[in-house]
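Review session, final week

We close the course with one last complete record, chosen because it touches almost every idea we covered. It is Phage Gp37/Gp68 family protein, a protein from Nostoc minutum NIES-26 with 268 residues. Go through it on your own first, then we will talk.
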Amino acid sequence: MSTNIQWADLTDNIIRTKDGGWWCQKISPGCANCYSEKLNQNSFFGGNKLPYSGQPPELILDTEAIRKWGFQKKPKRHFVASMTDVFGEWVPRHWQREMLDGMFVATKQTFQILTKRPEIMLSSIDEWLDGHGIDILPNNIWVGTSIENRQTLEQRSPILAQIPAHVRFWSAEPLLEDLGDISQFLQDIHWIICGGESGANSRPCHLEWLQSIVQQCQSFQKSVFVKQVGANAYFQQQPFRTRNRKGGDISEFPMQIQVREFPNLTCD
């Protein structure tokens, strides 16, 4: 379905609960105010009111949605499974292979897969590549991991870097602290999405943190996409107010972070 996410054209939620809605499992600080869980609490949006914790309910894979990818003629960027993590430990491996098979034949489409569990993504993709006798993912399959603080950066990015892909990316949103010097990790990354947290009880995002990411990406000629400053932004130690409730209007950003780039597909 169409989406308001600025870096994607569509969201394809191919994993749902049997009785409707979605399910995921929180794993790190970035999950605390999960927008997906909040949507899932609202039956108006098709949610089932289950918390994203405990034991998984019965789930289904939408194989028909996967099949249709191969028949779509107009190129689109698909953010796959915005409401869950397709590489969650509760997801059967054969579902992940079916998903990758569907992407493999849909050469006109671009698929953006994001996980907080890059170790499972790495293992599953390695198995899939071996099964197809290829060494690297097709360039229409982009793989990413969520980075919210320095700890998750150091834990997740080195694992993501091992996945053979033309595009590896971070989603540094919600950005919860200054990531500091990221130069040692940038050589293996092609794209960074970054932004502050929105919604109720949003945690602070200092625009200097975003500016640091932008500057370092530009220094290393890496693509960067500043999605939003968030609903609780600070700049030069003062609250930074925006008319847009998510802080997502790029015209309201300081000039230094008015950057929305997509990956350069000529990269290795």
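Two points worth writing down before the exam:
The chain has a mean pLDDT of 96.
The CA atoms of residues 33 and 106 lie 34 Å apart.
Good luck, everyone.
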